[in-house]
Design brief:
This protein is an alpha/beta fold. The protein is about 30% helix and about 25% strand. The protein has helices at about 30-35, 60-70, 90-100, 120-135, 215-220, 245-255, 275-285, 295-305, 315-320, 330-335, and strands spanning about 5-10, 15, 25, 45-50, 80, 100, 105-110, 140-145, 150, 155, 165-170, 175-180, 180-185, 195, 205-210, 225-230, 260-265, 290.
Length: about 350
Amino acid sequence: MKRILLLATGGTIATEESAQGKIPALGTDALLHTIPEIAALCHVEAKELFRLDSTNLQPAHWLTIAEAIQENYGAFDGFVVTHGTDTMAYTAAALSYLVEHSPKPIVLTGAQQSIGQRETDGRRNLFDAFLYAASDSAWGVSIVFDGQVILGTRAKKLRTKSYHAFSSIGYPELAQIRDRKVYPILPRPQLEPVAFRSELDPEIFVLKLIPGICADILDVLLPKYRALIVEGFGVGGVPYYASADFAGAVGRWIEAGKVVIMTTQVIYEGSDMSVYQVGHQIKRDYGVIEAYDMTLEAVVTKTMCLLPRCPDLGQFRRAFLTPVACDILLPEESENNA
């Protein structure tokens, strides 16, 4: 029987009602007590890392989770992390880079309703997470939610209330879970040896463009951050207003040795800055990095992981455009030019 370690971080699945609204209050014993059938799947041990609404989780908490996995990696066959849904996709992406190439499953799950409520998705999701973690087809970092197994670098929360909260963006699900059985969709890949990382640099800013935005904001942000992620329009357009020199502002970031990454506000199908002049020109003239089909969560967390390791812009570009856990699918011409 496989040994699985439960790492609890709080979230809706562990909440109880209070005068101020729902707060994480249930520990690991209370979570496991609601689903005694888990004992027939695997041998479970549990550790509570924190009791937090996931809105309050920060990069330092990702490092704590990764450290707990590393410390216990040799003693367990897999890990289940209970987590709030609001930032679960960020944590899943971060762990994909902090525990890179893991052959052992690291499964995140949570719920839209507390596990203690009569009508809840929490009991199914937690059981499914252990079911998948204990299966022979499981590997790497994933989110198990509403019968879906989603790769950690490809998950995004798309719904605030319904049980079908997460989707896999631009990539197939790893598996589906129905009637308490795991149905793999993608085969388990050949993986390099696991690599643990212990550094993150959160000095990045995500700027979402809106029509009429002033380019001056880039100069305000320049002294404060090491990297800028710009959510452009459509396939990656940046405005060229007569009254706002966005290209020049981006150029000043590059000249200062800062990282500038272009992504898109559109959830599906990714960017392609070669299509329109408004994207092609700024990429050609200033050498911004294009995120292609990466999720914003993956772009943010990969940037945080790479900044401490890649002080040189060229080194950062090469590392960013190197796929990790299928986080980026590069067009052939972009691979050749990277």
